[in-house]
Amino acid sequence: MQLPRLKMRTCTSLITTTKMGPFYKIIISDYKQRTRSYAFLVTLAISLYAAYLFVPATDANYTTVRIGNYTGIQNSAWIGYVTAMMTSIFLSWMGFYLVNSGIKKDIDTGVGMITATTGISNFHYLMAKAWSNFLVLLSITGIVFLMSIALFFIRAGEYPFELMQFILPYLLITIPAIFFTAAFAVVAEVFLYRYTILMNIGYFILFCMEISLLTTGQPNLDPSGVRPVTMAMQQTIVHHYNDTSNAVSMGFIMGHKEGLHSFVFEGVQWTATGILSRIVLIGLGFIFVFISSKYFHRFDIKQKFKLKKKVKTAEIVTIVKPLRDIKLSELPPITPSYKIMPFIKTELLMLFRKGPRWLWLVNLGGMVALVFAPLVIAHQIILPALWFLQVGRWSDLATKEKTNRIHYFTYASYKPLTRLLPAQIIAGVILSLILASSFLIRYFIGMQFQPILSIILGGIFIVLFAVASGILSGGKKLFEILFFLFTYANIQLVPVTDYFGGVNHGLGYLTLIAILISFLAFLSFMLRKLEIGRM
Fold first, then answer.
1. What's residue 3's pLDDT?
2. Among positive and negative, which fits the CA dihedral 343, 349, 350, 352?
3. Residues 425, 467: contact at Cβ < 8 Å?
């Protein structure tokens, strides 16, 4: 009587393993592929460096979290919650751009077509992508968590070490935030898989809106989990010091430390409602993925282009003449040209045609705003935002040959190192200067030549940075992440990332930018030469 029961259990286990096998394999293979990329390593390095800066030394000239005129004493609770908050914000921001190309990668490599023939459901496939995204972000979070504990022993001094003051904030603040980000990246790919530029720019706007609501929004509606902590800090100051002028400031706040007072922060007393709101955020991630699975194309790419192919076929049929009507003597003569200008024209044409057409209306609006906005606002905010809108055009400027698998042909052409690569760089720089042309004319009328030089150098720098990072990483993800970081930091007026002269640094800083441009140009040509030599 026991034998049939054992057989039934074995069969049930086999069926479950067969169904869930592809699910786990997708998670593991996707996780391995992502963690071996340059973009992951760069994001990890930036995260570790940022985590170190999140807890400044006592003699540092900046703070990261201020509650009015107060900042916390660096005990376990302060270091644990501050690093957890900043990690939540940082990975909700940078993490999206790190993991938002999982489905696209399967389309480009052809793995998606193979996956579509298997028995895995849309929900399981998308959920596997969400879990792999989460594990990538969780790996970075885990390393930052260890860094925060190390920072305690470096910064805290005589205060006791309390492990739960590190575990609780990361468990309730950071982990739900990065899971929601991982799931949201999958949902964005499902609905905006043909509009990656819109996806990147749209998330940038959503992130900026979320940041603006961190200090005023409802605590249980904050996806990053920062608001409950800042409210607990404010209540601590009101309770102990009876000071109601306790506005929250977060980020790298330079200087102005003379009037700051210290207070002891003992952590957050989490309520059932607060914990439930974090669990609900994770549940929303599952729900969003489930809803998007109903609209997932399942790599049925032919349906996308079916109508376009019919139109193109009809045009070809009406235009092509029978072979007997073609006379070779009437065809234009073939005149070979080895000049660089045809390449520049072609690259410019591809840059202008790439992306949705409505984006050019936004670009034209930005160019008009550069004319009428105040000089400071136009230079420090509008110009970097306008250049950031071109992230989709510049990110694959030097890598689209590999993406489209024609690099074997282009690298074998006549002098690709001195014709094709310079043409790509020149076309990218021309685009940057065209977008800034109205602003350059405005400075020229005012006889201000140093800002003109800084903008020209900035356009050259960002294009060369896109080319160098693309060739180095073999894709566009690294540049997208770093360009997003640069743009946000520039809008926040961080001097270190100012590559276009938004803050008046003087001729010394312009000389430094020129040196960096020379280095990026040398690096780009050397890396491309190595690539061609390996063919």
1. 40
2. positive
3. yes
pLDDT of res. 20: 61
> Cβ distance 92 to 207 under 8 Å?
yes
**Residue 139, class by beta-carbon neighbours within 10 Å (0-12 exposed, 13-18 middle, 19+ buried)?**
middle
Residue 88 structure tokens: 């939540």
**What is the amino acid identity at position 170?**
Y
Report pLDDT digits (tens) over 36-85.
887 888 888 888 888 888 888 877 788 888 888 888 888 899 999 999 99
Q: What type of residue is 342?
A: P
pLDDT digits (tens, 9 = 90+) for 131-140: 999 999 999 9
How far apart are alpha carbons 301 and 180 in whole angstroms?
Answer: 28
DSSP category for residue 381: I
Instruction: Give bridge partners of residue 71 from the DSSP assignment.
Output: 262
Contact criterion met (CB below 8 Å) for 465 and 383 = no
Burial class (CB in 10 A: 0-12, 13-18, 19+), 235: middle
The whole-angstrom separation of Cα 200 and Cα 198 is 6
pLDDT value of residue 246: 72
Q: Determine phi and psi for 359, rounding to 5 degrees.
A: -65, -25
Exposure letters 6-33 (e unless 16+ CB within 10 A, then b):
eeeeeeeeeeeeeeeebbeebbeebbeb
For residue 285 the two structure tokens come to 């991630």
289 and 127 Cβ atoms separated by less than 8 Å? yes
DSSP letter string, 63-123: EEEEETTEEE--SHHHHHHHHHHHHHHHHHHHHHHHHTTHHHHHHHHSHHHHHHTSS--HH
Query: What pLDDT is attached to residue 252?
Result: 74
Residue 326 is predicted with a pLDDT of 67
Q: Spell out the residues 6+ positions from residue 111 whose beta carbon is closer than 8 angstroms to its own.
A: 105
Instruction: Report how far residue 58's alpha carbon sits from residue 76's, in angstroms, rounded to the nearest whole number.
Output: 16
- Beta-carbon neighbour count of residue 48 at 10 Å? 15
Residues 160, 153: Cα–Cα separation, whole Å: 10
pLDDT of residue 4: 43
| DSSP letters for 440-490 | HHHHHHTT-HHHHHHHHHHHHHHHHHHHHHHHHHTSSHHHHHHHHHHHHHH
CA 144 – CA 80 distance, rounded (Å): 11
pLDDT for position 16: 40
pLDDT tens, residue by residue, 262-307: 888 888 888 898 899 999 999 999 999 999 999 888 887 555 444 4
Output the DSSP codes for 390-415: THHHHTTTTTHHHHTT-HHHHHTSSS
Say how far apart CA 474 and CA 74 lie, in whole Å.
42
- Which stretches of the chain score pLDDT less than 50? 1-18, 304-309, 311-314, 316-317
pTM of the model: 0.75
The pLDDT value recorded for residue 325 is 67
Main-chain phi, psi angles of 70, to 5 degrees? -125, 145
Structure tokens at 414: 């006549």
